[in-house]
Amino acid sequence: MPSRSEITYFGAGPALLPTDVLETAAAALVDYNGTGLGLAEHSHRSEIAANVLNTAKADLAKYLEVPDDYEILFMQGGGSGEFSATIYNLVGVWVEKRKQKILKSLGITSDKDIPEDALVKELQKAVDEELKIDYLVTGSWSLKASQEAARLVGAEHVNIVADGRKINDGKFGKIPEEKDWKLSKNPAMVYYCDNETVDGVEFPGFPKSLEPNGEEDEPIVVADMSSNILSRRIPVENFSVVFFGAQKNLGSTGITVVIIKKNLLPPVVATPAPTLLRKLGLPIGPIVLSYETISKNNSLYNTLSIFE
């Protein structure tokens, strides 16, 4: 059998990890810092776990130059879980913003000052006529994300901004030019996968048509960066949400990192009540995919794998 030093490995994920990192991790798995317990055995609510978590956040913020007005969340479920989480959370943001817009147009400051049925009626009209989630489909990962959106909220609310197959003989492999993109007006989000590993497609930089404009209705841009995070500098401040699984560029399988702008979280934007979402026919996500819940609990709402 070949030794580790003889192997050249290019797996997309789980990816190759440095040998010295694995050796350090192996020792920590048996006895972490002389505590007599392995890191995986320590309570995720212990001071040791909190220190590991906070150090990881600080290191990521430093390496990625994450601005102070962003929150770093550690979650579970991988990129596929985020296909759903982004929809649950950002459609909720869209609903809350539409609600506030409706109240403002009526000269009302609180939803307590309007009959609930009347507010629901106005919101339902907005959902039916205006709710769109935009997807740049440039490979299999963004395609899966768009399909999950159609499954959760209905295909009528999903707008395919561009489809790489349409300019490449029915196959992925190219990114359509921005001049041909068909963006919705004020979508709940604009989603793309920065690097499509299966299809060999990577965005060369942040799309110019999605750059922040300083306006209240500037695009809410979401990017899946699972396979190229930390491989180059990115303008984090241009994104509303960036997510990535740890297993490709950071570590082993089990942790999903979400970097989200704080103005998409309470108290800046309230989370719509589940009863309201039900009345509007919109999906209610599992509590473990709630960005608000994970943020409020410092990523420890449920048992997080600290060893990762």
Automatic annotation (TrEMBL):
Pathway: Amino-acid biosynthesis. One of its GO terms (biological process) is L-serine biosynthetic process. Residues 9-108, 121-266 form the Aminotransferase class V domain. Its cofactor is pyridoxal 5'-phosphate. It catalyses: O-phospho-L-serine + 2-oxoglutarate = 3-phosphooxypyruvate + L-glutamate. Pfam families: Aminotran_5 (PF00266). Keywords: Pyridoxal phosphate, Transferase. GO terms for molecular function: O-phospho-L-serine:2-oxoglutarate aminotransferase activity; pyridoxal phosphate binding. InterPro entries: Aminotrans_V_dom, Pser_aminoTfrase, PyrdxlP-dep_Trfase, PyrdxlP-dep_Trfase_major. One of its GO terms (cellular component) is cytoplasm. This is Aminotransferase class V domain-containing protein.
